[in-house]
Amino acid sequence: xxxxxxxxxxxxxxxxxxxxxxxxxxxxxxxxxxxxxxxxxxxxxxxxxxxxxxxxxxxxxxxxxxxxxxxxxxxxxxxxxxxxxxxxxxxxxxxxxxxxxxxxxxxxxxxxxxxxxxxxxxxxxxxxxxxxxxxxxxxxxxxxxxxxxxxxxxxxxxxxxxxxxxxxxxxxxxxxxxxxxxxxxxxxxxxxxxxxxxxxxxxxxxxxxxxxxxxxxxxxxxxxxxxxxxxxxxxxxxxxxxxxxxxxxxxxxxxxxxxxxxxxxxxxxxxxxxxxxxxxxxxxxxxxxxxxxxxxxxxxxxxxxxxxxxxxxxxxxxxxxxxxxxxxxxxxxxxxxxxxxxxxxxxxxxxxxxxxxxxxxxxxxxxxxxxxxxxxxxxxxxxxxxxxxxxxxxxxxxxxxxxxxxxxxxxxxxxxxxxxxxxxxxxxxxxxxxxxxxxxxxxxxxxxxxxxxxxxxxxxxxxxxxxxxxxxx
Length: 473
Known about the structure:
Residues 37-61 are annotated as: Disordered. The protein is mainly beta.
């Protein structure tokens, strides 16, 4: 139960945080991301029909080069808690930062064939050694990050488009997108190394932590334990079939060799993550929107919460997933809705769930969640390139996962030593993306998190204040 002190903290700081961001938004607002926007670094395939342009421009690029750099600084206030476990969010004030630099290089090889290559550098320091939250506060943080810059190949992939007729669509130049022409009826094959949110659940308003919401629970389905290494990238293939306002996507990608590990298991026929997504673009009046439904099935060498509890029974030891590893399967689904309400306001809503009797393997410890938010642009305030967004997420755990944590088990991110009083982990986030000049954006961000680690005894709330600087060419 929330104490009087905690209530006073919430009343004192939350209004100030929301008013601060709201004043920025409505004093000098905001550009909502548009479904007509060209593809960027988070949108790895040619856009859906609603994202293309039937324009007179039919030019096609042979090659392009783009780059981005993003710096995020965050400060967490201290909060009161009756106890702290081995993998709890620290109750003391902390700061965290990340910096990334990415180069996007693309070349047209032949008709419909495009090759992309993205070297990347990252450095960062997480809050509490990345423990204590399932809804982690910064989508740029990596599981194997560190305070020394590390370079790697984020993406390398071939995209082949087979045009099948229909309306002509022209797509503008952008990161991981050559300016070119496509048919509204087409089949697209992507092979190589990507992150799955390049192709699946490419939400217009909540997909990219470099320009939109930062929290992990906002950038995609929380319960989607999508195949990825510790940096969120994987290797595999996907096919996308576009037919006017319908899109069907299917893919298979490599799982890591161990939970949250850096090395992918190349035996993709034995261990893999499979996805299928159906999308329908629509209009209500003249306002675009869409609905997506995603299903996923993972197969990995992972531990079962029930098996871990049973193995520890009567031994005096806490359950340990690493003692009960075996070939295991996990399935789940997600539903996503987005809609423009006017020329300057858009909304999104997501829900997802998974049968997480098997440990989280590649994303985060969320078994079911619901999130939604609003994005507003500042055209009416003469700030058409700015964006104000506010969103809420509520995440939960399945019974077996709760019992494992209650018995003192440690997960990939969580482990307070006990879980006597379970509560859903809830996040309220607001950001304001201030466009300084072309290619340069400054974004204050505020988050309030209740029940960190699903622990109502350590309710908080936890307040995190951030600033993001983003540059792109």
